[in-house]
Amino acid sequence: MPGKQLIVFDFDWSFVDQDTDRWVFEVLSTKLRRKLQTIKSGGSQCTPDVVAECMVDLAKDGKTQEEVLDALRILPLHPAMKRAVTSLQSRLPDTTFVCISNSNEIYIDTILKKHDLTSLFHTIITNPAHWSEENKNCLMVGRRIPADSPNQHTCQVGCLVNMCKGDELENWLQKNGKKMDDFEQIVYVGDGGNDFCPLLRMRAQDLCLVRKGFELDLRIKEEGESAGLKAGVKYWTGAWEIDEIFSEL
Ligand SMILES: [Mg+2]
Ligand SMILES: [Zn+2]
Known about the structure:
- 43% of the residues lie in helices and 16% in strands.
- By secondary structure, the chain is of the alpha/beta class.
- A hairpin with a 7-residue loop joins strand 4 and strand 5 (139-141).
- Helix 3 (30-41) runs antiparallel to helix 4 (47-60) and helix 6 runs parallel beside helix 11.
- The protein binds magnesium ion and zinc ion.
- Magnesium ion binds at residues 10, 12-14, 191-192.
- Its cofactor is Mg(2+).
């Protein structure tokens, strides 16, 4: 009898085939895409802060809410990824899907709605976002853990200041009255350096689905063993491979 599965998805380059933050600027403004790049490579590591600043400029440049939403609606979600999750859901209906992402609420909701996947995730853990009341074309993006919150994370694995994905996974379990052992297997689909932390919290029977050639791949090779990674690792390049792996769960 198949046991209960918990599937945890990172969003950018994992669930979707793009980086949501970069994509919106690539579609709407080369100047702001460059600005995003320049600030990021200048050492500012808190992604939602950088995105928030560039979104203010985008609204000033006259881009509208509808243009931002349209850009998100054409962001690539691979049909095989949609097939992977919908097939798994119908084959093993007691599977729980959770999304932990450093994108933001508006981006993720818009994309899921476009693809009729709004009810897929039990919970979407991400940065807050809303359209400004003074200017409905300006998206205000905040931090998952606000800068003035007394509850800053203390993770030493190298998570960004606004979110520790390992803590988020454990907090989600606790909030829902669950322990890891309530799930026969936890499967994590990720690509980024910030996906390394939650993998370290997982058990030997769990599975990390790591996108080949991205930062997580590198971190696992360099630090996986010394950091005590216990979960199994499988590598993937295209969404069809996720579909294939899911069909064998
Ligand atoms: Mg990612
Ligand atoms: Zn962490």
